[in-house]
Structures are given as C-alpha cells and as structure tokens.
Amino acid sequence: MTFVDKNHGKHRVTDGMQITGSDDWWRGIAGPQTEALGDAYRVTFWWRDPAGSETTSPIRRVWIYITGVTDHHHNAAPQTLQRIPGTDAWCWQTTLPASWRGSYCFIPSERDDDFSPQLFNGEAPDRALLREGWRKLLPRAVADPRNPQSWKGGRGHAVSALELPQAPEQPGWHYREPVSPAPRCIEWRSQRLGNQRRVWIYTTGSGADRPLAVLLDGQFWAESMPVFAPLAGLTREGRLPPAVYVLIDVIDNQHRGVELPCNRDFWLAVQEELLPLVQAVAPFSDRADRTVVAGQSFGGLAAMYAALHWPQRFGCVLSQSGSYWWPQRGSSQPGVILEQLQRGELRPQGLRIWLEAGVREPIIFRANQALFAQLRQSTPSVFWRQVDGGHDALCWRGGLTSGLIQLWQPLRRGQQHALNEE
C-alpha cells in the first residue's frame, strides 16, 4: 500500500488540462480510478472535502476502511487519505489483484488520535486495539458520494463497491427489476424466545413440494442488498428450482450475538413456531435434502449448528465466513463445532455443505479450512470455495446464489429426468 504523491495536485492532468481539485476535474471523478499493472490494478481513492482546503476545513484525517485490506480482519495498520495541499482533494492509493471485489468507506475525522499510537509503531498491530478503534469510528462512516453502487453494510454503516475487471461471476446479481409476486413481510411473535421480529417470505413457482431456504440476517438480504430479483432471475433461467425463501430478521446486534452462535432455543423456535406459520401461507417440502440454511459470519456458524443438530430437518448448509472460532476469540484452540466433530459428538454424514471463506479474513479463513479438512473425512458432499476477499457482503452475495445453485443441483437433475421421461 502506498500513498499518492502529495505533489500530484501541483501539476495538470492530461485529460482536458484540468487542475486537480477544480470543479471541472471533480466532475470527471466517478469513484475510484484504476490503472492496469500486469495482472493487478493500481487503484486511487478520492474524497472531496465539503469544507474546502486545509485553510478552511477542520478535517485532519480521512480514514479508509477497505474490507480485507485495511480492516481489523486483515490486521493492517489504519490508513488515511492524504490531502493534496491547497485543494479540497484527499486521495489514497493501493494495488489490488485484477480479480478483486470488495467494499470500502471513508471516515472523515477532526482528530489525530482516533487510534492508539501503538498501532503505528511498524509492528503487527494489536488486533484488540485495532478492532476497538474501528468499532468506535465505523458508525461515522460515509459511502463514496461519487460511486453510485453503495448500500448500508451489515454493521449499519454506509459502504461502496469496488469490482475490478476479472472479479468472478456472481450469478443473478445483474437482475434488478421488481419481482412479482412481491415478498411478504410478516411479524413473528415467539413465545419461546420472548421477542418479536420481521420475517420475509418470498416464493418462486408453486407447489407444496417446493424446496425451502432459510436465510439468516434476513433484514440485510431483504432491504440493504435485496436478493429477490437475483433469485427470480435464476429461477427463470432454470438454474434454481421454484422455492420458498424465508428471511429472518436478527432484531439487532445484541439479539444476533445471542441467538445465532449455537443457540438451541432459537432453532427450536424456528422449527416449532416459525416454519408452521410459513407453511400456512407458502407450502414447502419437509424433506431435509430440499432444505437449505444459509448464513454469514455468526449466521454461517448458526447454519452449520442447525444442520448438525437437526439433520432430519435441515439437510443442506450454506456457510459463508462462518465464525468457527467461536467461542474462542483470539485463541489458538478450535471452536466448539470443530471440537465436537473431532470427538465424534456430531455427525455430518448425509449433509450437503457449501463452505466458503475469504483469504483476507485470516482467522476465519484458517478456522474454515480446519473445519473443511474435518468434514471431508466423512462427508462426500462438501463444497469448499475460497474467495479473494474479506468479511464482506459484496463477496457473500455471489456465494449465496452460487451455493444455492450447487446445493439444489440434485433437484434440477431430478426435474430434468422427469421431463425426459414424459
């Protein structure tokens, strides 16, 4: 990672002889600028200070949070854009592989001490200090106002997308049109859990034998990054079977942190209370081999927990960046799921499992690799995919649709065989 030359603003750029930081120049900036460098790209990020140059603006830092590059998962020292002297332009530059896909945001600050000085001593940063610093700053994050592809991230802060030319395909995500019928939002009042939340029910096709997919962090896939158009498009293409999708809201981060990590009561409530409600309005198959539980981070852990404990109901797991270190954060000890598998207390035989993690989230990546090595000893239908990315919904969205396609592939083969028999 390198900074842009601070003298960049003192010369003219070649496209139209425009001065860096002038109004005409800013009109030509539409998000990060990229320049091919062999099999990589030099990427320059720009932010315009609304208060003007250093003589009129109180801004001292513009932190850049790129998932998998400058975040706490990658354990990198915090990075800040640099102001081009005498202008309202801030910039930062790095080199990324041509296959890169990831999200980023800016955090303008009037302070110089947002992070502990220990994080800048040239050694590997203390992960706890790094995590705490970003935790305090991220609520103030802003998306790149010059990038039209922006949304609210999983932690609630604004982010923008960067996708380089060789980023892998993300099935279905080019579809954006409204779907019909529209998803239905119901309120689930749980007696077992003592709370209430929204649940979205989305259906494609008809028939009581439709497969079922339960999507955790449902509020994200319903509102922040709606998955309905991609699902509808892939169904029309024949890459997904007609199905029932149930998207479960987490309520808030406090409930998420309690209910998703290996929580027996949560999954009993889903089976005993929620699924009968859904069945009444959108019939689906009760066969385990037609039922997918999908989740990310704690949700990936929860999906695996559900299938390992109730394989007669949940036969397919779609786990992305699963938190399989849990509950041993910061420890070299394996998480509880891996420990129980190693001791033979849980048996994955018969499950179909899609396991995915990013190489730029090293702790989670290593935990997922260890889990995959254990699962493949007894589970032939385990599909491993590593992603050149971080703990990032922009990566997860492609894995979500790819995983559904893979896990339901036997259903499509069966449907095609039935058509050939007619």
TrEMBL record:
Keyword presence, Cytoplasm: yes
Entry's EC annotation: 3.1.1.-
GO CC terms, sorted: cytoplasm
Top-level taxonomic group: Bacteria
Broad class of the protein's primary localization: cytoplasm
This protein's UniProt keywords: Cytoplasm, Hydrolase
Subcellular location: Cytoplasm
Protein source organism: Klebsiella aerogenes (Enterobacter aerogenes)
Official protein name in the record: Enterochelin esterase
GO biological process, one term: iron ion transport
InterPro entries in the cross-refs: AB_hydrolase_fold, Enterochelin_esterase_N, Esterase-like, Ig-like_fold, Ig_E-set, Mycobacterial_A85_antigen
Residue intervals of the Enterochelin esterase N-terminal domain: 42-173
UniProt cross-references to PANTHER family, sorted A to Z: ENTEROCHELIN ESTERASE-RELATED (PTHR48098), IRON(III) ENTEROBACTIN ESTERASE (PTHR48098:SF3)
Family label: Belongs to the Fes family.
Any matching Pfam family: Esterase
Entry GO MF terms: enterochelin esterase activity; iron ion binding
Lineage: Bacteria, Pseudomonadati, Pseudomonadota, Gammaproteobacteria, Enterobacterales
